[in-house]
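Researcher: We plan to redesign the surface later, but first we want a full-length starting point. Tokens attached.
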């Protein structure tokens, strides 16, 4: 990723936030149990139907599905994430599928050093 790519990436993410009316994304378990479609218990730890742990379904999976956030279709890890507006946390909670870059970016406010290596050289 070079400097221009990084600027484009940041603009794409900012666009996505604006379009969706959210201010933050955070990795999370799928909305319902993927093994049986059952609901999570109150603390979202176990499936009430089959007993599967939600933790085991939070693991990233390898996919070619487009990232909802930055729109990349390059195959790689995808994760479940929930988007919300920090100023209005209860009103808007949406589920997305995001790539590992976006998962890192949303947690840290930047991309990981390996991805941005090329950027620092270009700067
Ligand atoms: Zn289940
Ligand atoms: Zn992404």
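Model: Full-length starting sequence:
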């Amino acid at each position: 990723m070079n400097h221009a790519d990084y600027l484009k990436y940041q603009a794409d993410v900012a666009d996505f936030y604006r379009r969706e009316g959210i201010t933050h994304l955070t990795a999370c378990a799928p909305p319902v149990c993927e093994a049986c479609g059952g609901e999570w218990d109150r603390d979202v730890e176990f499936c009430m139907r089959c007993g599967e742990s939600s933790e085991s379904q939070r693991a990233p999976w390898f996919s070619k599905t487009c990232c909802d956030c930055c729109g990349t279709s390059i195959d790689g890890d995808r994760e479940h994430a929930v988007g919300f507006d920090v100023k209005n946390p209860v009103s808007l909670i949406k589920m997305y599928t995001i790539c590992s870059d976006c998962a890192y970016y949303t947690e840290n406010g930047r991309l990981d050093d390996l991805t941005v290596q090329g950027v620092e050289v270009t700067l």
